Backbone:
């Protein structure tokens, strides 16, 4: 069965908007559902600007079954990409019930309504946060799972639910994508990452220091057992990541069952290397100081990418220079994000 009309939950968010652009430019019909709790409707207008197409969106609480049913009363979908969810690690430690409640209930509600409508094709945003630190990088999809915070545990629980769902009814076709560290922005500079409050993640923090919104970056630890002492991560350009979803959607048409793939580049970049690359690419200095290690950080984390290449025919194409260029382009064009 050909997948044409796709429900994109969390479609106004950082990854959701980039995915909508790629879907629309590849000829898919897209309907976004977002409650705008951590995103802006302006981001949807920007997707329209990039694609020259009207984007249909509905303000929807995905935990509310009546609201989700209303979407399916209005449209006939062939599949869904489920991005919506809470994603801040620190917040998940402080407010575990909010994280388990929202992330699990929205997934369950969505799947219930998908089943009612006999639409059983889903792509789910999981995370490299599911892996245990006992694994040796590169992490492959068979490595052991043991997330170190509630956010990561919501991802593991949802993966388990999806496996059980497929086991109960093999008509389901499910793609679980484990993202490594998404960075960068659309090359137009019209959409990008716009964290609310002080960023938790490295790249938006660097960009806000470079633009002068924040005074100084703190590098969490320079005494790890890595070449330069700082942690190593697999940064992946958000446009590559978005394209990974198209590859996964296409694969669902072959009725593969329930499958899991890493979405990373396979290359480790250290925190200090990223700072240097940012300076080089932007021409702006990024003042930093060394701070103590951050609890829960793994020293080295990067993806094994062979399975995604073999089974989805997808691999990352963009490198560190493009990640820096596009982050800086977005940040300079939108110094305060989507706010005026
Ligand atoms: C984090 C989450 C992960 C989530 C991912 C989403 C944790 C422990 N993990 O991954 O669950 O899926 O974001 O993108 O939070 N760093 C600094 N200074 C900063 C910020 C970060 O030195 O101000 C360092 C961190 O210590 C880490 C690296 O930069 O070594 C990357 O950090 P971050 O961008 O937060 O991503 P992860 O921790 O890899």
Residues:
């Amino acid at each position: 069965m050909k997948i044409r009309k796709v429900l994109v939950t969390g479609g106004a968010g950082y990854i959701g908007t980039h995915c909508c652009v790629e879907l629309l430019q590849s000829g898919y019909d897209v309907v976004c559902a977002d409650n705008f709790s951590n995103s802006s409707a302006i981001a949807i207008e920007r997707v329209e600007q990039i694609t020259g197409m009207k984007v249909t969106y509905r303000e929807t609480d995905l935990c509310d079954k009546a609201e989700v049913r209303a979407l399916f009363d209005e449209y006939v979908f062939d599949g869904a990409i489920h991005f919506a969810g809470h994603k801040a690690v620190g917040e998940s430690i402080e407010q575990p019930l909010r994280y388990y409640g929202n992330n699990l209930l929205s997934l369950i509600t969505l799947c219930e309504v998908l089943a009612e409508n006999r639409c059983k094709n889903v792509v789910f945003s999981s995370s490299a946060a599911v892996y245990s630190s006992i694994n040796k990088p590169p992490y492959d999809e068979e490595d052991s799972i043991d997330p170190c915070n509630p956010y990561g545990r919501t991802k593991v629980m949802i993966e388990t639910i999806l496996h059980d769902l497929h086991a109960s009814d093999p008509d389901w076709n499910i793609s679980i994508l484990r993202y490594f560290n998404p960075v960068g922005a659309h090359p137009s500079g019209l959409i990008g990452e716009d964290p609310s409050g002080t960023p938790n993640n490295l790249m938006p923090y660097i960009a806000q220091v470079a633009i002068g919104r924040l005074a100084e970056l703190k590098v969490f630890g320079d005494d790890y057992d890595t070449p330069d002492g700082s942690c190593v991560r697999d940064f992946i350009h958000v446009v590559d990541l978005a394209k990974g979803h198209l590859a996964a959607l296409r694969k669902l048409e072959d009725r593969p069952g329930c499958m899991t793939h890493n979405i990373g580049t396979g290359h480790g970049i250290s925190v200090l290397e990223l700072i240097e690359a940012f300076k080089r690419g932007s021409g702006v200095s990024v003042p930093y100081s060394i701070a103590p290690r951050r609890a829960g950080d793994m020293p080295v984390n990067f993806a094994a990418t062979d399975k995604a290449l073999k089974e989805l025919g997808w691999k990352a194409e963009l490198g560190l220079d493009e990640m820096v260029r596009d982050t800086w382009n977005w940040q300079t064009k939108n110094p305060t994000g989507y706010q005026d």
Notes: Residues 89, 127, 129, 151-152, 181, 200-202, 205, 217-220, 231, 233, 271, 294, 296-297 surround uridine-diphosphate-N-acetylglucosamine (CB under 6 Å).
